[in-house]
UniProtKB/TrEMBL annotation:
Gene3D superfamilies: 2.60.40.2310, 3.50.30.30, Peptidase S8 propeptide/proteinase inhibitor I9, Peptidase S8/S53 domain. The gene is A07p040500.1_BraROA. Residues 653-748 form the Subtilisin-like protease fibronectin type-III domain. It comes from Brassica rapa subsp. trilocularis. Belongs to the peptidase S8 family. This is Subtilisin-like protease. The keyword Signal applies. Residues 145-575 form the Peptidase S8/S53 domain. InterPro entries: Peptidase_S8/S53_dom, Peptidase_S8/S53_dom_sf, Peptidase_S8_Ser-AS, Peptidase_S8_subtilisin-rel, Peptidases_S8_3, S8pro/Inhibitor_I9, S8pro/Inhibitor_I9_sf, SBT. Residues 41-119 form the Inhibitor I9 domain. The active site is at D154, H231, S538. The keyword Signal applies. Keywords: Hydrolase, Protease, Serine protease, Signal.
Amino acid sequence: MRYCFLISNTSSKACPLVISLVLILNGVFISAAQVNLLNKVHIVHLGAKKHDTPELVTKSHYQILEPILGSKEAAQKSIVYNYKHGFSGFAAKLTASQAKNLSAHPEVLCVIPSRTLRLKTTRAFDYLGLLPSSPKGLLHDTRLGSEAIIGIIDSGIWPESESFKDTGLGPIPQRWKGKCVSGDGFDASKHCNKKLIGAEFYVDSLAAETNGQYDFHAENEYRSARDAAGHGTHVSAIAAGSFVANASYKGLGGGAARGVGPHVRIAMYKTCWGKLGCLTPDVLKAIDHSIRDGVDVISISIGADAPAGFEIDTSDVSFGSFHAVMKGIPVVCSAGNEGPNAQTVDNVAPWIITVAATSMDRSFPIPITLGNNITILGEGLNTFPEVGFTDLLLQEELMETSIAQGQIKGKIVLAFTPNNEAIQKADRVLNAGCAGIIYAQSVVDPTVCSGLDVPCAVVDYEFGTDMLYYIETTDVPLAKLSTSKTLVGRPVASRVARFSCRGPNSVSPAILKPDIAAPGVNILSAVPDGYKFMSGTSMSTPIVSGIVGLIRQTRPDWSPAAIRSALVTTAWRTDPSGEPIFSEGATRKLADPFDYGGGLINPEKVTDPGLVYDMGLDDYIHYLCSADYSDNEISKLIGKPNQCPSPRPSMLDLNMPSITIPSLTGEVTVTRTVTNVGPADSVYKPVIEPPFGIELEVNPKTLVFGSNTTKNTFSVRVRSNHQVNGDFYFGSLCWTDGAHNVTIPVSIRTKILRNYV
């Protein structure tokens, strides 16, 4: 039994480390006695439902809790939520000792303290070739997604936005079982329509955690599905916004705004509240309801910081997602915004589709004109009026007294920011009233200009040094800072964004994460006060979610794993124009699978992949057995007895659309099974791009499919020629029939000496 707050010796994934890290990182010491007296919301996972009716599921929860708390009244007062539709479990206020006693109950899978997750924060669809005007393709085949329903778990929605008008939409799909709930500033009868068909909000855990003291008004929040932060509105419009003409942000990025599927229906589940974030009991209840309601895909642009949680004992999103996937509902999650460091990727369970973020072929250059009439193009979103020629100062040469006395007012400052000290000084320059600021960075990150009240631009060190030379060799250096321009198409290159979290997967290194990438930089979408640019894997996630919703209309028989396989195997490994995709970081390099998984999503290829690497319950049991979960835990999770084979299976053989071997010593053979979803009589042959120093041998050499043969299994013998512990090298394996190129990434690391970095 895993109880991931108190000490437990029954798991290979030891929980004492978790609490020790939490206490050390927060710089506090809490005695065992103090912990025991605290009433904290915990989630009690029971796994698959044992009853078909929600009422019986709820009754079973009280039967478990009443003996622990001593009475039915105490149990009723303690329980915050009952999870009873997609899976079984409950959230309750418990002391540490009560939680520990409950974790020993034979029906309990695990008990997890509530955690707080964070939100991961026009041109994109043209860039990807997803055009509503096309006489064929995904949008044409699905009538702009009119039968698809996307469930979005986020900060709410602003229903008055033009992006959520239901003009031209037919009746709501009959299978829909959800509802709209009225609340503060949200009238269900007025604000829901044939576009926004569901709107619920979850406050019970919020009330329990704050003892009912959360002040919605003081926090500028709404006790309803209405969105105060703007994040959920932005995400919803990306996935399923209606057509809106002449949308822009203060004149930038102008054009017709729309979502992936302009006629896709939206169900909003609000679980995120202002600065507090998103409480996991609320998130899990939203997943439970979305399963009940009949959504086609669940989109979750929230997550935790590194390290990533284990799949079914410390990650409630992963736990709830497992049950959604078992009911055929794909779950799409953000990879996180803590990049570009390695092993930062979040939402890493193999049943989740994890999304990285790229830029696209649109940028917003800012002309910076020097007094010698040389113009340098910086980056950023500068919508302020032009700053005419004025003094150009170097931050490094500014005295603190000059800054404090306001001597920089009306002047433009060039700020090199290689460290925190320089960044803090730049903040003081901004507060002192400069007319504009130009950041010089080793890796250009225009988001540093977000929210500033003065004109701002970003350049790299090369251009920053050119400007420095001009300052040092000119008696009175001057500069002019213009407003941003919109540049579309060449010569703008696509890149994996600096902020996008990278692999390898720190929980299960043999499982490639992220899975896929989509545009997530400077995405224009709806917010409460109009339209605004936002960047993050929060923005790339609903692009993939929307496309998955469309796929489910054209391929209703595909499992979530088959859909993920199609995304990966048809993805671009270049940008749509054929140019290489680079990865932003400390040094710029060509992107690899740890940056973008299979590559950049290719929506017009994804419904015809030829072959898919499918997975079902047995495959996920294979994974859980290989990850050393106990038979008891797996049995509770899936709702039926399970016994892992002995020896336990290899995680390397999980039927993922990738091959990732984190510790290769000598030689190993892995297997995969592909299912034909193309023409019945097809013959495929392999095309191999081996990683450097690695030999790949595929058997058989030919895969033959016919009317009676829809599946084929093949093996790959992997051998390393390296003689030292190395890093990952990358290649690919492609099965081709001449019309379809079914490509999976291959990532291999040689480990002559194991368990040694």
